[in-house]
Design a protein that fits this description.
- The protein is α/β, with parallel strands linked by helices.
- The strands form 2 sheets. Strands 1, 2, 3, 4, 5, 6, 7, 8 and 9 form a 9-stranded mixed beta sheet that branches. A 6-stranded mixed beta sheet has the order 14-13-10-11-12-15, with helices on both faces.
- A hairpin with a 4-residue loop joins strand 7 and strand 8.
- The chain is elongated, with a radius of gyration of 27 Å.
- It starts with 5 loop residues before the first strand and ends in a 5-residue tail after the last strand.
């Protein structure tokens, strides 16, 4: 009986990166090593130009693969058996491997990367398939086989495997820089964070808290959301901004219909200042076009006018039901629907402007001095590091 000694990791989208490919692979290599080092100390990660291999050394293949599936930049993986590049060994080990599988039909596929090997791919396929047909009850089906046996003859060794497991895809975390994510505690922003991580962008989070109007349960909810997201980014910095004084000033000086618009402009001012301080390259959020009054295109234009920073909205054109499906998939949905409201929900006006006028907004903002309130909020930030290695 053949056992698997390794997991083969494929890059997928990284193959399009040309001269940058080696840098992307190096980041992915480090991310995999960091993900496995604590729980799987015997596993050894090996980097090659075309694949990364995880040598199990007695560790559980299933447990390691489950961890690898959460790492962005991995396109797919396979449990593989490594053997010497000898045709008789390939034929016999292929038979032993396929006997472990269930099904009635099979197909053999071969890739011969080592062109010095004395048999071409078609000859290898015929020899292996013939041996399997003679020694099992399996039949060949080249279109929809129950078992697909893969053989890869490489310079250093030959690898055989039968399953390819789709993974997260995207780019390795960190290659896309860092964004400051506006985290509300609702369904959308954690999904936006996940999509950013999947594209290689790491995140820090900013949350606008309004005690005593909002409850401490909101903060506990945020911590749990970020713990769920630690599957994709092992450590996340959460900045909690005291927003109460700014909100009270807005509702004291601004027509209620414009309150949300101006409140969002203040949030972007704060987010930009913090993003610059933390060397983030963009501001991100979970906004979806038309979902609420502040997310119409007219509102976004007026709100965005306070910053020149890039604003990334991963969910801008995503249907709400699809957002919910992703939230369920990444285990944030049940946390997001806990009944603790954030500052935007608590202070929602009855008739918010969906087509605000920028000149009106500027007039309202000129009625009070908000800059000292912004500076005070930034001085009083509370910071939490939410990490997969620690309890917070």
């Amino acid at each position: 009986m053949i056992s698997y000694e390794m997991i083969m990791v494929r890059f997928g989208e990284l193959s399009t990166k040309g001269k940058n490919k080696k840098d992307f692979i190096q980041v992915l290599f480090k991310n995999i090593k960091n993900a496995l080092k604590h729980d799987f100390p015997q596993a050894v990660v090996e980097k090659r130009f075309d694949h990364i291999y995880v040598h199990l050394n007695g560790e559980s293949a299933d447990a390691i693969s489950e961890r690898l599936l959460d790492i962005s930049g991995i396109h797919s993986l396979s449990f593989v058996h490594r053997l010497s590049s000898d045709i008789n060994t390939i034929v016999e080990d292929s038979l032993s491997l396929i006997r472990n599988e269930t099904g009635s039909t099979f197909k053999v596929r071969c890739k011969r990367a080592d062109k010095s090997f004395p048999f071409v791919s078609d000859q290898i396929v015929r020899k292996v398939a013939s041996h399997i047909l003679k020694n099992t009850n399996l039949t060949v089906d080249v279109h929809q086989p129950d078992i697909l046996l893969n053989i890869e003859v490489r310079m250093e060794a030959t690898y055989i495997y039968v399953k390819t497991i789709p993974a997260l895809g995207g780019y390795p975390l960190g290659v896309g820089g860092k964004a400051m994510l506006m985290l509300s505690g609702g369904i959308d922003s954690p999904v936006a964070a996940y999509l950013l991580m999947r594209r290689g962008v790491s995140v820090e989070c900013i949350h606008f808290a309004s005690p005593p109007y909002t409850q401490i349960g909101v903060i506990y909810k945020l911590v749990d959301l970020l713990k769920a997201l630690n599957r994709y980014q092992p450590a996340i910095r959460l900045h909690i901004i005291p927003f109460t004084k700014l909100q009270e000033a807005i509702y004291q000086h601004v027509d209620e219909s414009y309150a949300i618009t101006i409140m969002r402009r203040m949030m972007y001012r704060l987010a930009e200042k913090l993003a610059k301080r933390r060397k983030c390259l963009a501001i991100a959020n979970g906004e979806s076009v038309g979902q609420v009054a502040s997310q119409t295109l007219a509102s976004m234009k007026v709100i965005n006018a306070v910053t020149n920073y890039p604003i990334i909205r991963p969910l801008a054109v995503v249907d709400k039901l699809d957002i919910i499906k992703t939230a369920v998939k990444i285990n944030t949905y049940d946390i997001s629907i806990r009944p603790f409201e954030d500052c935007c929900t608590i202070f929602t006006p009855k008739n918010p402007k969906t087509m605000p006028k920028e000149e009106e907004v500027i007039k309202f903002e000129q009625t009070f001095d908000y800059e000292p309130l912004i500076d005070e909020a930034l001085r009083k930030i509370e910071v939490k590091i939410i990490s997969s290695d620690e309890e917070n």
